[in-house]
Structures are given as structure tokens and as C-alpha cells.
Amino acid sequence: MALNAGTQxxxxxxxxxxxxxxxxxxxxxVRIYDQSVxxxxxxxxxxxxxxxxxxxxxxxxxxxxxxxxxxxxSFHTWLYRIVTNLxxxxxxxxxxxxxxxxxxxxxxxxxxxxxxxVAEARVDGDPQRHLFSGQLRKRVKEVLEQLTPRERMVFxxxxxxxxxxKKIGEMLGTTEEAAKNCLFRATQKxxxxxxxxx
Amino acid sequence: MSLACTDVRDQFALxxxxxxxxxxxxxxxTHLDGCAECRVALEKQRAFHAAFDSAAAEPPASLLRECRAxxxxxxxxxxxxxxxxxxxxxxxxxxxxxxxxxxPAGAMALLALGFFGARMTPLLNTSFLGERLGGNVxxxxxxxVRDVQTAPDGRVRIVVDETRQRTILGGLDDQKIQxxxxxxxxxxxxxxxxxxxxxxxxxxxxxxxxxxxxxxxxQNDENTGxxxxxxxxxxxxxxxxxxxxxxxxxxxxxxxxxxxxxAINALVxxxxxNPDRQVIGALQELMLREKDAGLRQQSQRVLxxxxxxxxxx
Lengths: 198, 313
What we know:
The complex is a heterodimer.
Chain A (H helix, E strand, L loop, with lengths): L10 H9 L3 H23 L2 H18 L9 H20 L8 E3 L5 E3 L2 H8 L3 H20 L2 H12 L4 H8 L3 H19 L4
Antiparallel strand pairs in A: 1-2
Helix pairs in contact in A: 1-2, 2-3, 2-4, 3-4, 4-8, 5-6, 6-9, 7-9, 8-9
Chain B lengths: L4 H6 L1 H5 L5 H13 L1 H18 L7 H19 L8 H10 L8 H15 L5 H7 L7 E11 L5 E9 L10 H10 L5 H11 L7 H13 L3 H11 L6 H13 L3 H12 L8 H13 L3 H13 L8
Antiparallel strand pairs in B: 1-2
Helix pairs in contact in B: 5-7, 9-10, 10-12, 11-12, 11-13, 12-14, 13-14, 13-15, 14-16, 15-16
């Protein structure tokens, strides 16, 4: 996990300070990871409100259980285990909210459809390409919604978060091989659906 | 051993993610060297990946800000000791923040942050920040720099917690007004505390929260004027054992002679002919240690009126 430039934080020291009750240390720890936590929740749940709930619940659980953290795994893995469990629960409960648009953020304060940026990158002022991009965007949305929550989770963690399958397996409480199979199925489904477009 | 084209193409996704083992990758590469159709198929797979690559996005800055503010508010509430005695301050904060709500609404969270900030951290007033931020926070009633970071592009990112000023009108019997006055007695401004205590001592109901606030002021306020006003307010509670104990402590420990004198007046005003033994003992104790001649005389007169000796035998 990348830290802010010029801010070399000794994460273990922050964790120990937070475990000792230093709330400032805890907040600094939160700031290291919270942007990526929110991004993951937003991309998976496609709802700012749900992402906000996951953010809040995840960090409160971390706060309440930090004294149990024994450095058996990285803090990042431990945190993401909590976050992914919360997201999977939401996705299963709400069946990935298929009726809702895939909303995520732009650089401003207004949420934007993240797939719009795919279209923008490919339009180049060409009407035919514009049409192509619109159709692609629609198909991508459809196929993402067709993935199971686990397939979706593994795909998000591998493709957007850039995590290795071994680590994803640790986070999801499964093996690297199972995570690999999950990613394989996800990409197969997407390739089958998008084969005509790329 | 060689692979069929379909088997090779099944591996393309994992190949692009770098998730094939060395041996698996070697087999795929060997096949690609001799199969032009699979090389074309691999390029299509790359394009497929690219369609998603450009879709990565960050959450809205406003959403992240709200999440952080809400989390901070929740942590502030959570960090308070569960076994702490529930006094007027706790109830006030609970009223403002809704302690039973796990995730308070954004506006309420900011309000809570502002009040917590006012209580626990140094404040930067509006004009201070306004000057430095070109008036962008000129409407903020209270503000506090929560976080300062240097972004990778060299720009500085500062997170400011702020609350907006509001004017609230109401009668002294209005619970909301009383709660705000109770909060105001901890304001760093002497004038605000003085005015608040002056008003609180006129609250007619025998309100325990008001009593506790006045006791706190009598014992802790750095301003003698505020202490005297709080003492005057406590006279109507003088029959209360807690108040009596607080007045005795004030009598024996307040640094200002005027405050000690008023403590005597408050303790004896409704004593009648059967004063509390605790009060007599405190006055006798005062006779032993008091250096102010006027106070010694006052104490002696009171003891005499109770037919009590000025000495401890």
C-alpha cells in the first residue's frame, strides 16, 4: 500500500500506539488505508451510501478489535479481510443491486460512472467510436453484474487494487488456487460477453 | 509437451495478471512463438484488459471527507470511558451527538466535532483561518486544522474541521437554552462564562445539572467574579449535602478572601439555630489557618451566634 510521498510512516509503531490507546495514531493509521477502502467499497457496491456504511463499520470494527491484532498477518490483509467480508455481505444481501447504476467518483465532488472514463478514453471525437464505446460500456456493466459476489470481489482486488492472488486468498479465507479459479471464471465470463467488442 | 490453442488462450488472463507459474508461462510463450493466431488472440485479450484499466477511479473527495468526519465523531464517542459517571456534561454531549446512533448524520457529526474540538483542542478562530485561506472559511464559527499532508504532486492538502455559527433564541426555562448555557460555562472567554453563570443561577427549578455546573465553577473557575456569581447561585441549593460539602471545600481552599467570605454566608444563611456540625467544624478549622483578619472576625461572629467555641479542643 502506497504511503503519501514524504510521509514515511512506521506502520507497526502506529499500530502499537493505537493499541495503547493513542487515538491520533489510530487516525493516522486510518488515513493510510481509508481512501482505498472507500474506493473498493464504492466500486463493488456502486452506492455512495453503502460504501459509506462499509467504511464506517469497517474502521469501527478495527478500532474495537485492534487489541486482538497480533501481527500474524499484515495490517493491510487484516483490514481488507474485514472490508471484503462486509462488502460480500452487502452484495449477497442486496444481490449486487442490479437495478442501480455503477456509480463511482471522478476527480471532483460529483460521483460519475466509472465506465464513462472508458468511453472518454476511446472516443477521440469519432462518432463511430463513440457508439462503440457506449455499447462497450453497457456490456461491461451487464457482465460485471452477472459475476457472483466472490468472482466480482476477486476481479476487483486483482484488477483494480493490484493485489496478488495469494494475498487475495488470505483476505478471503481461501487458497491462492481457489482465488485463481475465481479470477479465471470471472475473466472467462467477461471475455465470452465482450468478445465481439474487443 | 505442447498445448492446444484453446488451452493456451485460457491462460491469457492469468498471463497478463502475472499469475502463471514459471513453467506455465514458459509453455504459453513457447506456443506463442509458433502460433500467429494465438499471438493475435493475445492482443485482443490485452485490449480487453485495457477497457477496464482506464476505468479505475477515486471516490469523491466530499464523500471521503464525510466518512472521515463521521468516523472521528463516532470514535470520540467510543473513546469515552463506559463507566464514567453520567453528569450534566455527558448528558449534554449525548444530547448533541445522539450517542445511541452508530453513524450520525453528516451535519450532526460536524456539529459534534466542533463542540468536541472546542472542549479538547486549541481553537483557531474564524479571522485567523479566514486571513490565511482568503476568507474561504469566513462563515465558520469554529475551525480546527485536523490533518496536513503533502500530496505526491507537491501541493499541500489541509483538512479543516469547522462548524457554522447559529443564533438560538429561547426562554431560560427552555431545556435547549439551559443545555447550551451549561456548555458555555466551560467557554474560555471570561465574559461568556460570567454571563452564563449569571443566567443559570436564575434557573428556578432545582436542576441537578445546573447545581453541578455551579459547583464546578465555584471550585475551578480562574476568574474570581465568575466564582462569586456561581456561589450566589448555589445559595438556593445550600440545603443540599453535596453543595454544602463543596462550599466547605471552597471555604477552606479558595485563594480569594472574598470568595471564602461568601462561602461562609452561603453556608449559614439558612442554618437557623441548629447549624450543621460539619459547618461549625469547618469554621473552627478556618480559625486555625485563616490569616485574613476580616474573615477571622466573620467566622468568630458566626461561631458565637451558634454558641460554638472558636477553638477546636
